[in-house]
Amino acid sequence: ETGVTQTPRHLVMGMTNKKSLKCEQHLGHNAMYWYKQSAKKPLELMFVYSLEERVENNSVPSRFSPECPNSSHLFLHLHTLQPEDSALYLCASSQELAGREQYFGPGTRLTVT
Amino acid sequence: AQSVAQPEDQVNVAEGNPLTVKCTYSVSGNPYLFWYVQYPNRGLQFLLKYITGDNLVKGSYGFEAEFNKSQTSFHLKKPSALVSDSALYFCAVRDSYSNYQLIWGAGTKLIIKP
């Protein structure tokens, strides 16, 4: 595997389900990010981790819970989501936190029914 | 307020013609500027960036971008478009307060017609 991988690629879940999104980066980067992408809107930064420490939580509802067990892995735990949470969730990594380009995974297409 | 604007939702270009995708920004201090491309069902791919130096930046797949400080613009260009360039293009600028967050444009859909 190379670059940034995400699983699953597609997920359909009910409002009462609990699921997790997984991201893994094979680039030796120190920073990882979760974004939400909705159609025709700018990317929304959700969470940022640097060296496994969370440095940003952009007013994200508590039904989204991130976890970064090491510098290569990032999870997004989901529970009691709402239909408006349906979107493409993108994971990214960068070599360091400041001023560097980010490398993105293919995303997880989430549909909440 | 800091912002990025991509004034065109969609740009249509004939194959072989030059293309331009526009981006203007508003940030404090010196901007770090980025262009990314997103192909269908894929994540975003980094194309190029401007941090300092030459105002004309060259990137992947034959793309280049011109930084214009007086017009606060960073337009993406390519001399001769390919059908395979059809994709969604995003401009972003580093948030000068947080130093790491990117402020994103809403994206421009580029359609190259044969």
Tell me about this structure:
Chain A has 113 residues and is mainly beta. Chain A is built from no helices and 11 strands. With 114 residues, chain B is mainly β. In chain B, strands 2, 5, 6, 10, 11 and 12 form a 6-stranded mixed beta sheet that branches. In chain B, strands 3-9-8-7 form a 4-stranded antiparallel beta sheet, with no helix packed on it. Chain B is globular and about 45 Å long. Chain B starts with a strand and ends with a strand. Classes of the chains: A mainly beta (113), B mainly beta (114). At the A-B interface, strand 10 of A face strand 6 and strand 11 of B.
Strands, helices and their partners?
The complex is a heterodimer of chains A (113) and B (114).
Chain A: E1 4-7, E2 10-13, E3 18-25, E4 31-37, E5 44-50, E6 53-57, E7 64-70, E8 73-79, E9 87-94, E10 103-104, E11 108-112
Parallel strand pairs in A: 2-11
Antiparallel strand pairs in A: 1-3, 3-8, 4-5, 4-9, 5-6, 7-8, 9-10, 9-11
Chain B: E1 3-5, E2 10-14, E3 19-21, E4 24-26, E5 33-38, E6 44-50, E7 56-58, E8 64-68, E9 73-78, E10 87-94, E11 102-104, E12 108-113
Parallel strand pairs in B: 2-12
Antiparallel strand pairs in B: 1-4, 3-9, 5-6, 5-10, 7-8, 8-9, 10-11, 10-12
Count of helical segments of chain A? 0
Secondary structure tally, helices of chain B: 0
Q: SSE string of chain B, helix = H, strand = E?
A: EEEEEEEEEEEE
| Strands of chain B, count | 12
Summarize this entry quickly:
By secondary structure, chain A is an all-beta fold. In chain A, 0% of the residues lie in helices and 57% in strands.
Tags for this entry?
heterodimer; A: 113 residues; mainly beta; 7-stranded mixed β-sheet; 4-stranded antiparallel β-sheet; 57% strand; globular; B: 114 residues; 6-stranded mixed β-sheet; 12 strands
